[in-house]
Amino acid sequence: MHIHAENVAFVLVEPLYPGNIGSACRAIKTMGFRKLVLVNPCDHLVPEARWMAHASEDILEEAQICQSLEEALADKHLVIATTQRGRVFHLPYFTPAELGERVVEASREHQIAVVFGREKSGLSNDELRQCHLVSTIPAALSHPSLNLAQAVMLYAYEFHKAAFAEEKRYKWRLANQVEMDSVYQHLQQTLERVEFVPQDNWNHFIMRFRRMFARATPEVRDVQLMHKIFQAVDQYLEHGSGKPKRKRNEHSSKDSK
User: Which contiguous run of DSSP H or E holds residue 40?
Assistant: First the structure.
């Protein structure tokens, strides 16, 4: 799943502090986004904003400036309002995580805006009515609420995570039964060579290792590693204290990358 970041805009309505704008630039760029829209902002190109943007000054300089929220949303197909305040009218509130997959899907062919209100008062009810969905960040306390740039970061992160969760997920290559049996056989052979004798019998002893490894769900690379350990012991026994020759392990292939 891929998000079309160029179709997702982060809209800040009348931001009061240049530092928040700069930090928001850094947040969205870190998560792969570039579109920042400012509605009646303070002076967003002062040094404070540039300091906080840090390596994201291009986002700051390319920000779209609008005179009204209507102007900012004119070409948008899906508009998400963010708020931390309860409202008199009842609307379903979505968390950033719940919106992630929907934003990813919609971004393929549609323009999306995520709207953030003023630091002191948020979005007005009239501004909220211009949006299609309402979202809030679950918090233990309503006050103090999150800083504006922190809120932008959370939404940008959740959208990025929804887009790349599957691609970033680790791909397990679990060892099969035959591969694991070869480890137990190699273990027993090596221990027998050093004249180790279990207290009960080999079947019970190896079963303890089977239980331990089963809980660990070894991968193919883990099996290869265990073979190499046993192989090192085998080579030492063959060559004594001298430096052992490199010998291909008959139980395993090359290490997986």
Answer: none
CA atoms within 13 A on the CB side of 82: 28
Q: Are 64 and 37 in contact (CB under 8 A)?
A: yes
Tell me the average pLDDT across 99-120: 94
Q: Which amino acid is at 193?
A: R
Contact 163, 154 (CB under 8 A): no
User: What pTM, to 2 d.p., does this model score?
Assistant: 0.70
Q: Is the pLDDT assigned to residue 245 strictly greater than 70?
A: no
Cis peptide bond prior to 144, omega within 30° of 0 = yes
Tell me the C-alpha to C-alpha distance, in Å, between residue 72 and each of 19, 35, 49, 154.
22, 12, 21, 22
Whether the per-residue pLDDT at 121 is higher than 80: the answer is yes
Write down all domains in the chain, each with its CATH number in brackets. Answer: 5-168 (3.40.1280.10), 177-239 (1.10.8.590)
Distance CA(137)–CA(184), nearest Å, equals 51
Q: How far is Cα 75 from Cα 9, in angstroms, rounded to an integer?
A: 11
Q: Please say whether the beta carbons of 153 and 11 come within 8 A.
A: no
